[in-house]
Amino acid sequence: MKATRADINWLSDPTVYRVNRLDAHSDHRYYHTMEEAERKAPMAMRHDLNGNWKFSYAVNVASRIESFYTPDYDCKGWDDIEVPGHIQMQGYGQLQYVNTMYPWDGLDGVRPPAIPVSSNPVGSYVKHFRKPESMTGPVYISFQGVESAFYVWLNGEFVGYAEDSFTPSEFDLTPFMKDGDNKLAVEVFQRSSGAWLEDQDFWRFSGIFRDVYLYTVPEIHVRDLFVHTELDDSYSNGHLKVDLDLLQADAAASVKLELKDADGTVVAAGEGTFVNGKLSLAVAAGEVKLWSAESPYLYSIYLSVLNAQGELVEAIVQKAGFRRFEMINKIMHLNGKRIVFKGVNRHEFNVRSGRTITAEDMLWDIKTIKANNMNAVRTSHYPNQTLWYELCDEYGIYLIDEMNLESHGSWQKMGAVEPSWNVPGNLPEWQGSVLDRAESMLERDKNHPSILIWSCGNESYAGEVILNATKYFHAKDPSRLVHYEGVFYDRNYEATSDMESRMYAKPADIIEYLESNPSKPYISCEYMHAMGNSVGGMHKYTELEQKYPMYQGGFIWDYMDQSIMTKDRYSNEFFAYGGDFNDRPTDYSFCGNGIVFADRRVTPKMQEVKFLYQNVKLVPSREDLKVVNENLFVNTNEWALSVRLYREGVEVYSSIGEVSVEAGSETVVPLSLPEEAVKLPGEYAVHTALVLKKDELWAEAGHEVAFGEHLFEVAAENAEVPAGSISVVEGDVNIGVMGDGFTIQFSKGVGSLASIRYGKREFIAAPPVPQFWRAMTDNDKGYAQGYDAGVWFAASLARKCLKVELNVAESGDRATVAFEYGFSISAELRVRTTYTVFADGSIQVQTDYKGAAELPNVPVVGLTFKLSADYDQTEWYAMGPEENYIDRAFGARLGTFSRAVKDLPTPYLVPQETGNRTGVRRVRITDSRGLGLQLTASASAPVECNVSPYTAFELENAAHHYELPPVHYTVVTVAGRQMGVGGDDSWGAPVHPEYLIPADQDLSFTFTISAIDSSSK
Length: 1017
Prior knowledge:
This protein is mainly β. Helix content is 10%, strand content 38%.
């Protein structure tokens, strides 16, 4: 659409989404010289407008300064605002997080395409600039991202209007430019008809949040290029075709093309002359190296644009990868091989700047993703910055590139499907806007080999409008497949998606689909809702990869917490979530679903993701190693094979070598552990790993890419009872057990162990009591554990000691005190904790849980007690090093590790159960001098253990970490079993049955407490 005057009514008209905006085009760089192009120099024909702009904020259309764009209006007294950046992140308007509902829900009853009137924040921006001397030709402006609609004026003249927050909007400024000072004015509206299509699960920002720059072009300019890399049916010989489109259709011009490999050798060349501004150049590339995430080999296409005199007027170097992505027999294939997506959904986010992210952010992200065995990213739910695609090409990541479309709140309300006023649906007035979003994405991103799949957006139900987007993608780019999950809700539009895509389907549901003779392969575009302490049971999904060929992976939700750093009332920084800015409506902490924290620190959940996503499975035994290479293209000899043998956590042998297994193959190789290394009795762990031989872009040499473990024991003679004698004093209230250097006291009144005194040091700050409750995780809250199982909260707070028994061995070398507890929640429920004190001062603790019927599942069966906070250091011999749970322990390994107590809890967005370790054989809890307690359990019957500065109840009662009390204690909880954390979703999916604790199931566990000092080993 063309216009010379702005019209405010465009904001609520879905048929108006671009006025005077230039057509979308490829994102290639262009230069005056080939030397500049070759080194990817800063583009001399671009001029950056980022930085401080003058700014005025208004709460709605009526209160804005309408004439601010005129040349005579003086903005010098206005505030400054940083571009790129969100308005709301710079002190204006309302920060607000909502998930599925529209942000005005309950405040304004509008229905599409109408928009709220009283609350539609307006940002008026002004930038003065002078035309760069280097720009002798036409001058254009590019806005890489503006949310959600904006008008542009230059020197008082209307330039254009655009919607679509996440693709570039470009305009021709040439007719309006002046010599000397130019006044650029931009008016940005948070609400527009486009906002009905941008109801993604994220913070609701507005403003100019991506780069803004001026650009010019040479006298002959390739406006658009489309690279087609084709392979023959042997997937070995390549054919290159490049479609070129000139800005100046009548120019007399030609192009010379050279295809160079990564070493700079020319492998193919061609040339041609433009006719009516168009040219298709095709060359045979011969035998080529293929691009994949495993081996992201890139060629360079050198394009020399020549004028009629044969002079170089434009130089372009475009990266290209030869790969073929196709459907073969209902299965997606890359270069002839069945592909499995080991993916994650990724929002662009920075804890301090929102969706305005930097190159450094993107580099950290791609290195982290690669280093943790992920091979795919879905750009949820909008096109990303161009640099991200370039990095994915270079580092090797498969992309689902998703167009900027989500209308979740128009058809799903509190989980119920109700599409009575769904947009875009079958409404023709929305067709142009939706197709424009598809076109803007495809035209910009089409030359990136990392993109295998176009996506029609997210959670917008189904209908003809979205189906037509698929038809556009297929017609424009047959080399890629098209994805859309929404057809799950309306099978009349099945053709919208080339694959069956679902969100948060349970493993059983996926299996049911795969065993129903389906017509399409399956992916989970979202699964493993990683909210808080989550990602339990992920193995149930990854185990489908080799069992069902039509199961082709999934994308974890999601990569990074979307929390914002702010300050509490005492000026201490904290991670804020929805509602913390008094934003209403809000969806509170539902923005915290990342396997990475918002400040770009990896969460413990990544330990499980990395292991379950590894492409090579290592299965060692005492004698040999089975190597299963599930890579599609690379041999395991790309990496070094590390073998380490540990006894009781101490390394006794190591070797480094190599194993050669072709992609898609497996073999068994001998390990040949030296006999002398396994002579002593004890528990042994064989750790095998494939590690990088050399530095890669994403990790240094030695980085582990695959791991496997085997445990075995060399039997020892039965341990003897510690020699020596004890004395026992039974008083009216207390029972004392004394020996050489220790006094242990039990209280009949308290009904528990009351004192452990080794030497002059008292260790017990609060006596051990049975523990059944854990601070609810986000997933626990999602399936109403507080409602269904709250009786265990009560049982953990109070119990009645029914019986105290004392037994002194006739030999005089040990004494046993037992306490039996009853609970108000059931007359049958019993817990008996027995303490046996030996002559060396060690205390064997055995807890027997006798279950009862008609009670809800138990969150944890354990024993909890407190030490002084002086005991603030731990050393573990357990499954680790990161926290793990019975349904999230595949990525954990048996070993020794040390942590300060304050570092054991994971700082999830909302305080909750955290820091558990399974398979605990030994944990030492000491002070700064190395004095403290040691807890041990047998390798054949290890326990679970949690050491924290906080009780479960303190965590339960805190909504933010700043609400937790000052640290006074070290809280130790030893458990026979804790339920899993789950993760199928966070709004009702229970933990899988095998990872629950039925209330009527008896359970016993044993551990030993002993003293340690700095000389203990």
